Amino acid sequence: MLAMVLRRPKTALVPESRPVPVPGPGELLIRVKACGVCRTDLHVARGELARAQSPIVPGHEIVGVVERRGVGVETPEGTRVGVPWLGYSCGNCRFCASGRENLCENARFTGCDLDGGFAEYAVTDARFAFALPESYDDVHAAPLLCAGLIGYRSLSFTGDAKRLGIYGFGAAAHIVAQVARHQGRRLFAFTSPRDLVAQDFARSLGVEWAGDSTVMPPERLDAAIVFAPVGSLLPLALRAVERGGVVVLGGIYMTDIPSFPYELLWEERTVRSVANLTREDATRFLALAPRVPVVTRVVPYPLSAANDALDALRQGKLSGAAVLVT
Ligand SMILES: [Zn+2]
Ligand SMILES: [Zn+2]
Question: Is the pTM of the predicted complex or chain greater than 0.70?
Fold first, then answer.
């Protein structure tokens, strides 16, 4: 099979011909049909995540069909499934035992510790392969699996905030915006200064105000989600939220956060991060997405052009989500 392999951080992915892997007990062999390209793949490729293994096959928004199953797996061959970032949790640690498997001490992550979906086949733990809503084709379903899931988890931590700011309008934001509008919230989008394309994209999804991240919104926000991996956005987002508001940091990596005056946090403003996902998040979000309905905007690339897709993401050239098609 063809696999796009990160042999060492800070190098391009290399096409390799590998034997098709064999599923062990509890595992599935999936014939990959599509795999989304996420900003986390960029952080893995750049060596910005300390835990990432190499060599590794990146990709954690896998849509495919069960080709073979290991011992003890009941999912029929031919079933379409989706595999997310959380590829394994132990079920025994104190975090798993308290409904927080996203924080599992023994977690393993797809395309980071475990070979992922930038390949023609992937082996995954059957417990982390989800049924997907039928109304999505393979390519349009892929972004639901990370941009959608992490975005949804981030959104859930904003409570009942009516006026919601979103910093960084990429794949996650374009899905969150649709869910938030469905929930009746008012949306304000912040992009890199003068990124008029992203601002127009945001408005096309029901965002009522879109502007530069350095600018204050026309009114105070109840909550903000920061998806862009830029630490200097945190003080800006805190300045934009109302007293008692929350700023949710939705990314796995962020550049250093500059110091800021306490008055930006004063009056019970809260800052929190979001890490990974739980299977419960997936169950809820994958049921909700077709009811909104969330329409994903995708930019397809052939699997062999994975480096081009990563470059386009790095350069901020995408409106929506890049997806590798196998
Ligand atoms: Zn655990
Ligand atoms: Zn991701």
Answer: yes
